[in-house]
Write a structure and sequence with these properties.
This protein starts with a strand and ends in a 5-residue tail after the last helix. Helix 7 links the parallel strand 6 and strand 7. It is 46% helix and 13% strand. The chain has one domain: Alpha-Beta Barrel (TIM Barrel). It has twelve helices and eight strands. It comes from Thioalkalivibrio versutus. Keywords: Amino-acid biosynthesis, Cytoplasm, Diaminopimelate biosynthesis, Lyase, Lysine biosynthesis, Schiff base. GO terms for molecular function: 4-hydroxy-tetrahydrodipicolinate synthase activity. Its EC number is 4.3.3.7.
C-alpha cells in the first residue's frame, strides 16, 4: 500500500517545549519538495511519548491538512493501553490519516497472545489500514513472526515496521508474510539490506535530514539498480550511525536545528544533544552533502 522512503517525522517545538506549528508546516513542505514518499507523524521520532492526547490528535490533523493529499500520512497511534491505542487510532481516522502505525505495547511486556489480541482489538474497532511496529529495543517485547502471520489474516492490518535489525528476522518475515503484508525497515543502518531482501520501504529517521538521498536510494532498489543504491547508502552511512549517538530524536532534532528547519526545542526527559556528539553529527551531515 505504501513504499519507499517514509520519514519518521520529528515534531518541531519551541525552546519551552510547546509545539511549533509554522516550523511543522515548513518541514512538511521540505519533504514534499525533496521527494519523500510518505509522512509518519507522531511516532517515536515525533516524541509521541511526551505529547498529551489532545496534542497528539492535533498534530495528526494539522499534518493531514498541510499535506493536503500530496503524500500519504501515516499516524503513530500506538500505546501500551489497548483502550488508549483505540482512542488514538479513532482520532487519527477522524483527522484524515491514510493509515496508522501501532507500536507494540511497551513496559507491560504482554505475551504473544496478548500482542495478538491487542492488535486484533484495535483493527476491529477502527476501520483504517494499520501497520504493526516491532521495536524490541524500546518496548522490551518482541512481536514474533508467527504472531505477525496470525495478524496478517486481519484485513486492515496491511504491514509491519520491523526494527530488530536482524537479517534473519527479515528473511523469515519475507517468507511468512511477504506476499500478504508490506514490510518496512525501522532501522536505517539495515534499511538497504532490508529492501534488497524483499522489503517495501524504510520508515526512516535519516530521511529527516537527507530526504532526497533516502528517496533516491529506495527508488534505485525498486527500479532494479542495486549498485546505485549501495553507492547512495555509502553517503548516508555516517548519518545512520550519528543520528543514534544519543536516544532518538535527540541527534536528529539537533541536526534539523543546524539546518534552520526548527528550533532546538525538545521535551523532558529528553535533553539537547551533548556537546561531545556535535562534531560527529556535523561530520556525518557533511558526508551526506548537507549544508550546515
Amino acid at each position: 500500500m505504501f513504499q519507499g522512503s517514509m520519514v519518521a517525522l520529528a515534531t518541531p517545538m519551541h525552546a519551552d517545549g510547546s509545539l511549533d506549528w509554522p516550523a511543522l508546516d515548513r518541514l512538511l513542505e521540505f519533504h514534499i519538495e525533496a521527494g519523500t514518499d510518505a509522512i509518519v507523524a507522531v511516532g517515536t521520532t515525533g516524541e509521541s511519548a511526551t505529547l498529551d492526547f489532545d496534542e497528539h490528535c492535533e498534530a495528526i490533523a494539522h499534518t493531514v491538512k498541510t499535506v493536503a493529499g500530496r503524500l500519504p500520512v501515516i499516524a503513530g497511534t500506538g500505546a501500551n493501553s489497548t483502550r488508549e491505542a483505540i482512542a488514538l487510532t479513532r482520532c487519527a481516522k477522524e483527522g484524515g490519516a491514510d493509515a496508522c502505525l501501532l507500536v507494540s505495547p511497551y513496559y507491560n511486556k504482554p505475551t504473544q497472545e496478548g500482542l495478538y489480541l491487542h492488535h486484533k482489538a484495535i483493527a476491529e474497532a477502527v476501520d483504517i489500514p494499520q501497520i504493526l511496529y516491532n521495536v524490541p529495543g524500546r518496548t522490551a517485547v518482541d512481536l514474533l513472526p508467527e504472531t505477525v502471520e496470525r495478524l496478517a489474516d486481519i484485513p486492515n492490518i496491511i504491514g509491519i515496521k520491523e526494527a530488530s535489525a536482524s537479517n534473519e528476522r527479515t528473511a523469515e518475515l519475507v517468507a511468512r508474510v511477504g506476499n500478504r503484508l508490506d514490510l518496512y525497515s525501522g532501522d536505517d543502518g539495515n534499511g538497504l539490506a532490508f529492501l534488497l531482501a524483499g522489503g517495501h520501504g524504510v520508515i526512516s529517521v535519516t530521511a529527516n535530514v537527507a530526504p532526497q538521498l533516502m528517496a533516491a536510494m529506495c527508488r534505485a532498489v525498486r527500479e532494479g539498480r542495486p549498485d546505485e543504491a549501495r553507492e547512495i547508502n555509502r553517503q548516508l552511512d555516517g548519518l545512520h550511525s550519528a543520528l543514534f549517538l544519543e536516544a532518538n530524536p535527540i541527534p536528529v532534532k539537533w541536526a534539523l536545528q543546524r539546518m534552520g528547519l526548527m528550533e532546538e526545542g525538545i521535551r523532558l526527559p529528553l535533553t539537547p544533544l551533548s556537546e561531545p556528539f556535535h562534531a560527529p553529527v556535523l561530520d556525518a551531515m557533511r558526508q551526506a552533502g548537507i549544508e550546515v
